[in-house]
Amino acid sequence: EVVGYKVRFTDHTRPGASIKLMTDGILLAETQGDPLLRAYDTLIIDEAHERSLNIDFLLGYIKQLLPRRDDLKIIITSATIDADRFANHFSGVSGPAPVIEVSGRLYPVELRYRPLVDADRADDVDDRTLMEAIVDAVDEVAAAGPGDVLVFLPGEREIREAAEALRKHHPAGAEILPLYARLSAEEQERVFKPSSRVRRVVLATNVAETSLTVPGIRYVVDTGLARVKRYSYRNKVEQLQIEPISQAAADQRAGRCGRVADGVCVRLYSDVDYAKRACFTDPEVQRSSLAGVILRMKSLGLGDVADFPFVEPPPRRAIADGYQLLAELNAVHVRNELTAIGHELATLPLDPRVGRMLLAAREQQCLREVLVIAAALSVQDPRERPLEAQEAADNAHRRFAEQRSDFLSLVKLWEFVQEKLAHKKSNRKLTDELKAHFLSPRRVRAWVDVHTQLATIAGEHGWRVNSSAATFEQVHLALLAGLLGNIGTRIVDAERGEPPYAGARGIKFFIWPGSALVKKAGRWIVAAELVETSRLYGRTVASFEPIWLERVGAHLLQKSHADPHWEKKRAEVVALERATLYGLTVYAQRRVAFGPIDAAAARDVFIRRALVEGDFETAAPFFSHNLRLLRQIRELEHKTRRLDVLVDDELIFAFYDRLLPAGISRGADFERWRVDAERNDPKLLFLSRDEVMRHEAGGITTDLFPKQMVLNAAGGELRLPLAYHFEPGSARDGVTMTVPLIALNQVSAEESEWLVPGMLKEKVHLLLKSLPQKLRRHLVPLPDYAAAFVERGGSPAHSLIDALISDIRAEHGVVCQPADFKRESLSAHLRMNFKVVDEQGRQLAMGRNLAHLISELGAAARAMFQSAVELDAPVVEGMHDRITDWDFGELPEVLELRRGGQALIGYPALVDQITHCSIEVFDTPARAQGQQRAGMRRLFQLQLKDQVKFLEKSLSSLQMTQVRASTVAWLAVAFASHEEIREQIVQAALDRTCLIPPLPADRESFVERKDLARGKLSLIAQEIARLVTAIVEQAMAVARKLQAMKAFPRLVGDVEQQLSQLFTAKFIVATPALQLAQFPRYLKAIELRMDKVKGDPDRDAARTSDVAALSVPWQRALGARKGVSDPRLDEFRWLLEELRVSLFAQELKTPMPVSVKRLQKVWASTDR
To answer: What domains are defined for the chain?
Structure first.
């Protein structure tokens, strides 16, 4: 009735009581309902030196209150208070507040300093560990007399280590007792029951400094350390750091041994160290989060926290951090004014984070679960883990584990506790049952009490508690609302031993080892708290989905946008959005509408991409008209190879920009505006030709730039489409012919070489420019000559080079050779580009080297063509067999057949069947000509059989030549038998007498050619025979010299390779007559080379390398053609022979200028 007390959730004060004892938190809470504290006329604040947040806030609040309550008396008490600071804090007009000192009744305390490190020694031989020093100190005080010992240590881990060290040391008759806050009530009670029989050694944290008094203590061992909770403003986490205690704390500890008798305090640090320490412990306000204080001050209207009269003002960064936390909870606006949520939080006497969870739980309809979790987070964990039964405790607690969430483990534990409470038979049996499950009855009671009070608060505010179980998502959405700063995402490539989770603001942390999720957590987790001990740990964690952050943390998401672009399918300008929360990427590459973000920029993108570039689906007439107009003008540019006809995109953009209203970036918005606008002016958006053309492109006609090329027009009109493109360096630059695969072998390289009339003049000009000066000077001015050549017109049936040679000879009497023209100097766009497509129009290959394309796809084209021939009945009817005389009428040059609407040209030819001939149809004139030549030769041979038989007898002298040649390996291949040589000479003679172009096309011309050949055949054969004999004689001389060149293996290898290429199996008939006549010169050059090598082998080696650099790629290209003839490769093959003559036997001269550099350019042209 006179004295009452009130602690958290418990009030034992009757009306009319004179004295009321309460915690600082209770008095602070009462300021909400009684701002002027009218219920009291005197306030006594004890243990003020502890300087907790609540005490400092009360002291500042009271200072502001005193001017309005001049009747209020304030008494501040403490054994180790900084009296001057407090007196000045409450100073008034009469000066500082009075200080009254009351002497204590303590027995004398002897201070002994026993530092771990002996500062007087030069070495560290006597340096001790902390545990060794504790053992020594306990031994020292035990020798001083009877009495219990109190050892101050920083934390639980150090207490366990000290207990183990002391037990191993076995001090005589001592009982070792731990004392710390998390200890079970039963174990704590043992400390307060002194025993007269044994000495007790109490190992305590700083909880034994002022919070409670251990009886019977005569000796104190002070390590000088304490675990202090500090808040990291940068990482937003609380850190329990071991720090040296202040002088005031050290004095408090020493005073614990002077209560019952003279005492001894052994300090495990030096007196110098003591003198250097801070006088007083840092107030909690300078090392804690100020969010709750700021919230309370805001709700009470106490003004800016920076101006609040704290005894020691908190640092500016602490204030900023407090506001940041409130912003995280969505409790303050950008200007730090309270939001609606902030006003609600201020009415709750709870930690702001817990309050925010409850508000969110109300919205998510999961108050039942979150009240349990919030209460659990507000008290010490009720689960105990005694040192001597850790494994048993872990097994008992495992039944409550929830694999996805430690928070739900608390709910499961709560349900277990509620069940036991509902069915309890007695308090003792309930206590025993809780202990059997390693649950602290005292902490369970505190949990139940806190939950009751939280439920009461919820009831007072009219919040409805859900009756059915909430979902995982509902519960964790509510928890996230208060714990957004404690989220983390897994680091995919985290090193072993490194923190596996990245947290807010760049921190990294581990999951607390006792968590059920330590090995099974998801990619994203949230922790109830982040505490730094030996490592930074997240305690009480749960997995969650990152998308939930958008629902509860939208006010914190930092969004950035990249790559704004038009999407035709959505008909909208979109950007890729990336959202981060405290530096953690919540999502990335999300496509979002860009219009609401930046309307002006989105409109620009819409105009440029959708309208100017035409990437838009609309039935609007203006759109198809404008695209068609721009396409026509671009085609003109590609044909003229000039980019100055069409106006640039900026002018077209300006056209639309002038007409479109602001804010349009979606197709639907544009269409609505367009329909309305075109009612007044249907042509509003139509571009005119004058608006988009800088000037007229004169001379661009379909004659100069046709849409298709007609090949073999006289025979079958193979029409192939052409496309023009101007983009230097691109594979499509120039004119591209689209070739169906079936027609590939029918494309004429000679006709394609003429390109189209509009590009021919430029090509001819550059070809003339490539001529040697001595030839070129006859043709100047070159542009005029090129224009005149094009005007005179040439036949595309012949090579452009051949036509130029003929024209130059006719016009100026100057004789040029094909090799005089440097075709390699031509730009790529002056060569026809071929695109081969299949029957569905899909591209199979593309390039400017027709021979290469034919070598790759010619076989497939031939097979497709033969299928078409076999299906064409009229063509099949015209094919003859078993022909021995010209009795089949006129042989047409071409036949026409159709395949899928495509006109194709077939080339009939006589085919040699040894004993007779037949007529077959081929897809290329070259293949047909090859077969026709062999077939025609066979037909002449059959008709001139008497002359051939006489000729074969007259060539019997070649037998000796063949025998001599067969003794040399590389000659034996070409001279396998006398009969083979004789047959080749006969065939070569027939070629030179009967197969002179043009070949007979009917019986009359055939008979005429046969009659002419009768008189010449023998003479020509004898001439060839003499050439072959001379070649063999020269080759034998080379063979003899080659045997003596073993000292030059590289030369021998190169020469043997050259000879093997010259002397192939049918070289007499296969080698063109002009080149066969040069064989003696080629062989003589080899002889001279061997004569010179001894004088300068290095030079020979260098020139061999030069030749190899050109011959190797030629051989590779030849192999890649797979037997398909390529005139350019054939020409290059004989240029290589002439290069050898020029390099190794220059005195023999060459018919045209050759050099390594020139052949490199020729090859570059050939390979393109």
So the answer is: 3-90 (3.40.50.300), 109-282 (3.40.50.300), 339-490 (no CATH), 599-691 (no CATH), 708-852 (no CATH), 906-1045 (no CATH)
